[in-house]
Amino acid sequence: MDILEQSYTFGDSPLREDPTLLTTERDFYIFGGHIAQSLSPRLQNLMFSARGVPWHFSLCQTTNPDDFSTKLHDGRCLGASITMPNKVTFATRLDAQTDEAKVIGAVNTGFVRRQNGQKKWIGTNTDCVGIREAVLARFPDAASQTRGRPAMILGAGGAARSAVYALWRWFGVSEIYVVNRLKLEVDALKESFDKTVTLRYVSSLDEVAKLELPQIIIGTVPDLPPQDADEIRCRAILDAVLGRDRDNAKRIVVDMCYMPSPQTALYNTAAANGWRVVSGTEVVARVCIAQHILWMEKDVEESTVQKLMAVVEESVGASRKPNTPAHPAAKL
């Protein structure tokens, strides 16, 4: 079941019930703590413009759940994007959650459906969809390459949960190595995904030589120089994995971080060691497409996808090889 079809299990289309929503000004927001550099407004407003609807997406920098509820119920709001550190705390202000959101334990998207004439806010997690679509758009063979092979994630927070879900649900990995500064956070991650996928905490540099190399690595932490001993240890483990085997032509690194620059330390180190890389801006673009499909209730046209990816290219720079396949139209 795709995400749009699944959304109707929570109620009827508000756009079919009230077609004037497409011709009147409506508001959409991203709610987060530090979002001044977010790429989402530019991408979402580009898609609204391409549709010819008088809808507007803007920033709402807040960590206050009451601010969130006020915006959702002001009569103009039709959609919400929820980012750190609100993905868990704001979920309780929504009326229901999809299976993905429940398993992952966090929401990043709110959309409206109608039940018995009443407006209901539904929470879902499209970060996992963004990871899947960004990887497969760039490397269509990725799922066949990762199936039955180990993966690795850096971090154990909310974004890591989305990465675990994507790796388990769509990439069929055998187990997931977790590199994180605190074992306690990894234990909590393991508990959340108990009986779903095998997670292994990698805590020392000595373990790297004994591991089967991961086929895909997903970074989910900020791009900051390591400060304390635990952060230095995690960086050393990651660098050792990236540099262990120079024959990495089929291995993939995704870094979900894209601020202050999409060319993060992980991105650059992986590329220098021959890994195929996917930037955080590519993931954000695919997340925005998934959100737009839930709000607009239509797939995004190929021409619009290409415009979005041009924005991504602008942010990353000329790092893609000339023979990289074109990004396909979004049908999530």
Automatic annotation (TrEMBL):
Q: Which residues form the Shikimate dehydrogenase substrate binding N-terminal domain?
A: 30-109
Matches recorded under Pfam families: Shikimate_dh_N
Residue spans crossing the bilayer: none
CDD domains under this entry?
Answer: NAD_bind_Shikimate_DH
Recorded hits in InterPro entries, A to Z, give: Aminoacid_DH-like_N_sf, NAD(P)-bd_dom_sf, Shikimate_DH-bd_N, Shikimate_DH_fam
- What Gene3D superfamilies has UniProt attached to this entry? Leucine Dehydrogenase, chain A, domain 1, NAD(P)-binding Rossmann-like Domain
Report what the protein is called: Shikimate dehydrogenase substrate binding N-terminal domain-containing protein
- Tell me the organism: Sporothrix stenoceras
